[in-house]
Specification:
- The protein is of the alpha/beta class.
- Helix content is 47%, strand content 21%.
- The protein has 12 helices and 11 strands.
- β8, α12 and β9 form a beta-alpha-beta unit.
- Bound molecules: ligand C2E and magnesium ion (3 copies).
Length: 279
């Protein structure tokens, strides 16, 4: 034991390392249980058509409450789920659950689900999408998948082929968080997207920073010339909404339009629970 203690002193980071690994394992265990036992929820955030001002769809955002650690952000647990080989099962649930809700909504509405790089690399995605719309009797064009630029760079040729097949079946594809990742105009040139979601950092700074404004304005123009729907994320104020209208954005999303809410209707409660912190 004295020997072991000596080794601990020799490696001062060891304890912190083990602690981090233990925490991570706790999350992995929790994710396993959640996949099996229904511990996930979807929150839905409205997307408004700017010309009409009407809600045209909702983005489904995954929510997970760890039994001990409380709410954990998808930005934290999705990468862990990918590492642990759980993302296909989680992704399947997200797609199925989003479609189950969509089936009860007005037919003019669509639902968007986020798809990570690992999901896009797997053969299962196409099956999950097809199964979900068939089971719920939905037209494929009412389901949109959101991918980030990071998902495109891993194996561009393979991903391009996959996206093409998904799109041929009628599903819509959005490029998420545009402008922040490994942005490349070649993505817009080589791949067919239905929608560009311009990252909220541009909207946030546009009013005070002429350079952000210039990039935002130019991206909207570029999108329009490509025949793609331009969509601004992170619209938090009426001023930002007015700005999006002025530069000709097609769609807007953000706290000013509506927060992500978990429908509790399944539990017999006809109200919604807010999932993001108040601004
Ligand atoms: P995202 O797809 O870009 O989602 C938008 C994020 O911004 C959401 O955070 C949303 O709650 C937040 N948001 C919406 N409006 C505003 C606003 O006006 N201001 C600010 N400050 N934030 C706003 P969330 O739900 O924490 O999701 C974070 C990321 O996690 C998502 O980014 C997406 O990449 C990923 N994600 C969420 N759900 C899923 C899922 O089911 N599957 C996968 N693979 N990834 C998911
Ligand atoms: Mg998204
Ligand atoms: Mg986004
Ligand atoms: Mg994001």
């Amino acid at each position: 034991d004295a020997k072991r203690a000596g080794r601990r002193r020799a490696h001062p980071y060891e304890h912190a390392m083990t602690e981090a690994l233990r925490k991570r394992q706790e999350i992995v265990d929790g994710l396993h249980d959640a996949v099996k036992g229904g511990g996930f929820r979807l929150a839905f955030q409205p997307i408004a058509d700017l010309a009409s001002g009407i809600t045209c769809g909702y983005e489904a955002l995954l929510r997970w409450q760890h039994p001990e650690r409380g709410w954990i952000s998808p930005e934290v647990f999705i990468p862990i789920a990918e590492d642990a080989g759980l993302i296909d099962d989680i992704g399947r649930w997200v797609i199925a659950e989003a479609c189950r809700h969509l089936a009860g909504w007005s037919p003019h509405l669509y639902v968007a689900v986020n798809v990570s790089a690992a999901q896009l690399a797997s053969d299962a995605l196409l099956d999950h999408l097809t199964q979900a719309v068939m089971t719920n009797g939905l037209a494929a064009e009412r389901l949109e998948i959101e991918i980030t630029e990071t998902a495109l760079i891993r194996d561009p040729a393979k991903v391009a082929g996959r996206l093409e097949r998904i799109r041929k079946l009628g599903f819509k594809i959005a490029l998420d968080d545009f402008g922040t990742g490994q942005s490349s105009l070649s993505h817009l040139r080589d791949l067919c997207f239905d929608r560009i979601k311009i990252d909220r950092s541009f909207v946030l700074r546009a009013a005070s920073d002429p350079r952000s404004m210039a990039v935002l304005r130019a991206t909207v123009r570029l999108g329009r010339e490509l025949g793609v729907i331009t969509h601004a994320e992170g619209v938090e104020t009426s001023e930002q909404l007015a700005l999006c209208r002025e530069i000709g954005c097609d769609a807007v999303q953000g706290y000013h339009i509506g927060r992500p809410l978990i429908p509790l209707i399944d539990m017999g409660m006809p109200y919604y629970v807010q999932t993001d912190r108040a601004a």
